[in-house]
Amino acid sequence: MFIKNPMEIEERSMEIIAPHLAGIDLTDDEKKIYSRIIHASGDVDYAQIIKIHPEAIAAAKAALKRGANIFTDVEMVRRGISIRTFTKFGGEIFCKVSDVDVREFAKREGITRSMAAMKIFGKRLNGEIIAIGNAPTALFEVLRLVREENIRPAVIIGVPVGFVGAAEAKAQLAAQNEIPFITVVGTKGGSSIAVAAVNAILYMLDNSRGQRDVASSGRD
User: Fold this and answer.
1) Is the pLDDT of residue 98 over 90?
2) Phi-psi region of 156 (alpha: psi -120 to 50; beta: other; left: phi over 0)
3) Model-level pTM?
């Protein structure tokens, strides 16, 4: 026999994950983010590579409560966020990677579309939540905007995956202290990890999910 009920699957998953977090000094909210990332990835090694700025969770919660928007690098992140929960707070989710103006700008400048999208968002990122799961170039651009143009997002969830630039972009994010952040060390990451972090915070604020929400919120 195997478990069929989505909520039971999630609860059992969290029970399995819990011992892997036992030796790490985490707040209850941090444990929820760690657990959901591990749940989404099926990889307990994430327990050793997640980095959460001390102000990140509070900043994200405050931003969501006032109706902040989320800006993402790829459609997979936008589509993975629990829209039923997120829209209760009044914000919108933006991803321009497929827009014609972004494609044309990226081709003209010789850069990735995700990077071009962040350039075009520009000042719109002030006070908002950024969730980057795929493109290191998008994270590099956001950090440039912070450093050179004084753009101040509420929080950056930056977990791009890959072997070219991903580890370096995340290291830059973790090294700066202007903007609260959630990231992971090294080459691991991805859209599902960004989604897991965002949804973990959303469910801290409102966990009145139905069976459909639970079934679509993780790997099960």
Assistant:
1) yes
2) beta
3) 0.92
